[in-house]
Structures are given as C-alpha cells and as structure tokens.
Automatic annotation (TrEMBL):
Lineage top rank: taxon: Bacteria
MF annotations from Gene Ontology: ATP binding; ATP hydrolysis activity
The protein's name: ATP-binding cassette domain-containing protein
SUPFAM superfamilies in the cross-refs: P-loop containing nucleoside triphosphate hydrolases
Entry-linked PANTHER family: INTERMEMBRANE PHOSPHOLIPID TRANSPORT SYSTEM ATP-BINDING PROTEIN MLAF (PTHR43023:SF6), PROTEIN TRIGALACTOSYLDIACYLGLYCEROL 3, CHLOROPLASTIC (PTHR43023)
Keyword Transport: yes
The entry's keywords: ATP-binding, Nucleotide-binding, Transport
Lineage: Bacteria, Pseudomonadati, Bacteroidota, Bacteroidia, Marinilabiliales
Limits of the ABC transporter domain: 2-238
Length: 250
C-alpha cells in the first residue's frame, strides 16, 4: 500500500498539486486520471521521489518515504518497478539484456541465475524466442511486454506505469492493460497507472483518482465512474461521444 498525505507542490509560485490525499492498495490497479496538465505526472513523480513535495508525506507500507535518508530511499527504490511512456528500452541491448539490466545492476546473482530470471519474466509476458532480437526488430506491443518483463525482474512490491498503452492500437492496449492487471493480482503489487485512456479506466480501473487542476476531485471504481454526479469528472469522461452514448444507454 502507498499513501499520499497532504501533498502540495508548486513550481515558481505556480501551484501544481493541492493537498492531495490518496491511498493506493496492494493487489489493485490504481489509476490516476485527469486532463493534460492537471498534475498527474507531477503526482506520480512525487510518489516515487523524483519530485520532493513542498509539504506532505508519502508512505510505502507505513514507511515514511519522504523522511528517509538518500540511502534508505535508494534501498526502497529496489522494490519499485517502473514502466515509462514509450517503453524506454535500451536500443543497443537485446531483449534479454534489457530484462537482465536491473538484475545486472542491483543483484549478486550469477549470470546463469540472471538469465534464468530474465527468461522467466519474458515467459510470463508471453514472449518466447525473441531474446536475441533488438527493440527495433519487434513491434510496439512486444516492446511494452519487454518493458513489463524488465519492470518485474526484481520482483517489485510497487509498480508505476506512466501512460502504459500510449502509441498502441486499441486491441494491443487492452492486452497490455490486462497483463498489468494480472501481474498486479498474481504478485500482490501496488500498481499505480497514469492514464488518459477511458478503455483502461473501464477495463482495469479498480481504484480511480481524478485530478482536476492539481486537486483530487473524485475517487471511485470503474463501476461507479459512469454514474458520477461530479461535473468536472463528467466533462472529462464524456468529452468522447462514444462514452456519452454508453452513459445515455445506461
Ligand atoms: N519541472 C517542472 N517545472 C515547472 N513546471 C512543471 C514541471 N513539471 C510540471 N510542471 C507543470 O505542472 C503542471 C502539471 O503537469 P503534469 O506533467 O503533471 O501534467 P499531466 O496531468 O501529467 O499532463 P499530461 O497528461 O499532458 O502528461 C503543468 O502546468 C506543467 O507545466
């Protein structure tokens, strides 16, 4: 579980996050949604320690991350997997080397053990016989799977995903969402996902937080979101004609 308590963040006097309180549960896909510029990325970066909140604290399973020394924070980061926008694979490394990378960096495992673990993770995301290929030789959906395999290589307790299905066709996007959801359940990971994608919201939104102008305006599940009375949330989700039609039929 990750808790954000009274998080405030400004840049050059411009308030970007206002008193955010949120609980992100283990074994759940927790989604942060909101329009462009609402503060989702700044919140995600504040949770993971890439931004220091001006005030407020972040707790990882009751451990106060904000108050930790650099060394303690560094140790805790080994429990965190990250899935960046655009996969962020290393172009000059093969698929297997990409997945092995965190194991090479942060473990004392032998080469054989690291290769075994990389293969286990690649199998888990249904990638077989592509170990020797380079990222440019595989599809965008496969690149995302490699990035997921790399993110779970160290057995993370926490997984952060920034727009995990950006750039993918709708069908592949659903496959990637479902994979993240399955892995979250299987390993009881606290997963936090930044997204604009309403398909993700309705597919895997177990706990959804809606940010509007840096404030948390709404919180609920995918079952609740289509029935919300919150005007700003409705303006956001029903900006799409498709979802408006769905609501009108409910
Ligand atoms: N390092 C920074 N310095 C100054 N301002 C910043 C910085 N990072 C973000 N901001 C500002 O904070 C606001 C929120 O940005 P943020 O990237 O969190 O939005 P977002 O909701 O993630 O948008 P998007 O969906 O487009 O990625 C924006 O006005 C942005 O310009």
């Amino acid at each position: 579980m990750i808790e954000a308590v009274n998080i405030n963040k400004s840049f050059d006097g411009k308030v970007v996050l206002k008193d955010i309180n949120a609980v992100f549960r283990a074994g759940s896909t927790n989604l942060i949604i909101g329009q462009s510029g609402s503060g989702k990325t700044v919140l995600l970066k504040s949770l993971v320690g890439l931004h220091k909140p001006d005030t407020g604290s972040v707790y990882y399973n009751k451990r106060n991350f904000t108050a930790m020394s650099d060394k303690e924070r560094g140790d805790l980061r080994k429990e965190i997997g990250m899935l960046f926008q655009g996969s962020a694979l290393f172009d000059s490394m093969t698929v297997e080397e990409n997945v092995r990378f965190p194991l090479d960096m942060f473990t004392e495992m032998s080469l054989e053990e690291r290769r075994e673990r990389a293969n286990f993770c690649l199998n888990r995301v249904n990638l077989i016989n592509v170990n020797h290929l380079y990222p440019s030789e595989i599809s965008g959906g496969m690149q995302k799977r490699v990035a997921i395999a790399r993110a779970i290589a160290l057995n993370p307790r926490y997984l952060f995903c920034d727009e995990p299905n950006s750039g993918l066709d709708p069908r592949t996007a659903i496959v990637i969402d479902e994979l993240i959801h399955e892995i979250t359940k299987e390993y009881n990971i606290t997963t936090i996902i930044n997204t604009h994608d309403m398909n993700s919201v309705l597919g895997i939104g177990e706990n959804i937080i809606f940010i509007y102008n840096g404030e948390k305006y709404w919180e609920g599940s995918k079952e609740e979101i289509l029935h919300s009375e919150n005007k700003e949330l409705n303006d956001f989700i029903f900006a799409s004609k498709f979802f408006k039609t769905i609501r009108d039929r409910l």
